[in-house]
User: Fold Esterase from Edaphobacter dinghuensis.
Amino acid sequence: MRSVLVLVAAFLIASPSFAQRIEVTIPANAPLTGHLILVIAKKNSPEPRMQLEETYVSAQAFGVDVADLAPNHPIVVDDKTIGYPRRSLADLEPGDYNVQAVFNVYEQFHLASGKTLWLPPDKGEGQHWNRKPGNPYNTPVKLHIDPESKQTLKLTLDKVIAPIEGTDRDPAFIAAHDPAAKWLKYIHFRSEKLSRFWGRDMYLGVWVLLPDGFDSHPDAHYPLVVYQDHYHPGFAAPVPFITTPPPSGEAHLAHLAAGYKFFQDWTSGRLPRVILIYVQSANPYYDDSYDVDSANVGPYGSAINEELIPAIEQKYRGIGQGWARATFGGSTGGWESLATQVFYPDMYNGTYTACPDPIDFHAYQNVDLYTDTNAFVRRGDFGEVPIAADRKPDGSVIADTGGSYRYEYVLGTHGRSTDQWGIWQAVFSPAGPDGYPKEVIDPLTGDIDKSTVAYWHDHYDLTAIMQRDWPTLGPKLEGKLHLTVGDGDTYFLNNAVHLLQSALSDTRNPHSDATFQYGPGMPHCYSGGPSEYTMEQNRDNWAQRVIPQMVEHMLKTAPSGADTKSWRY
Assistant:
């Protein structure tokens, strides 16, 4: 026992005493609840709050939950505060750094479930903590940080991020000043279902792109195409709707040139005449809802498909029948487009799904939720290997799962990171006892909660759902499923697509006729297309490629007596 005490004493004497601390104060007018994100960077530009990301670790950050903070009361960051990529302030090398903090302000939401939660509301910016209107922050300052210093460094968040009203990020402002207003309409739609769930007025934004000749053909009724994507302040389906040609010869303007080409094709009769909509569904957990009903995010599937779309079709003369609707999207929108078709099989007549988020939880990015016991490492008898999360198309790993989870933990606890792992958990999980999403993966240890996985399997594993329900679902999906993904997908999302194809290849009565296209070596956001074009070129003409295919299928499957003529002028 005596030798053990000697060893402990020696260790305590030899261990450095990390005393550096940073105190952050906010001269607010009222108590604040939210989450402090302190960012430390070596580069001068852009501002540190704009440098933070989970790959290439270009900045260091620390996060602190704060409840009922009194004005000018300090928030403390010290060696016990969890950070990313370095875990602790004690792990930083002494030196001069650019330091900036943002306080992500939370609000109370009194849910219909009876729970009261503190969450970051979307303020029209699409859930970006570093530019959310109303969030306090400071001008970057140069500080000398030395983990062994006993000096206390101080920051004051004396600025507030400005509102977006009347700017080029304000959809209402864009709609009022856009020369495309003849074709492009913006609707701020209050959802009764979402408002009831969240205990406050909740809105969907929707851009409606009307076909050429809409006004001059008042008796025409049109098919509806739903484009699925992340939050954008303006119309982006899948390229901007640009009414004037951009300057030629500049490579960085290629996307704008594609937008102008889309405008020309849309208004010249070269594309079938349909109504094309893009729905904004930013919410307290993310910039997008995933367009399904969720225990935590709310009934977005019902709100969009049972409230919003019927209202749009009534207002803008949609045909309003399942044979005359289709959907497409990539990444988050890819998952949404497939889930929309699967969960509403009679309401839609086709999905064109690109690079979808995990559609089979055997491949939750690079984690098998069903067989892995830990999401961060795979262990053998004599060691362990980190599980990769992000990669380059050549296979070079640029982030691991453990690091990316800690990155999001720094942005917000209880699943409030408003980032990728957080929204998947919010959408797919049941609510936990505290009202926040039940954790599927412990964000600091990587341990997997198998009871939560079982819930995910039954409710949101799209492969498992199609296998389970194929006798009734299969006949309704014939001719409707079209998937593309790059086999060098940045987030390993191709693995889940392959698993779905394998599962569908075993179906009978009917045997699935789903189509799959894989891009050898192609990264995330591969949308298929002719091999003679680059991935970017195929992306930029994606709408021009898939809308004619959608309409061709609609016409082939239209029921007897359906309106297949009034909109084909």
User: Anything to note?
Assistant: Residues 194 and 362 are 31 Å apart (CA to CA).
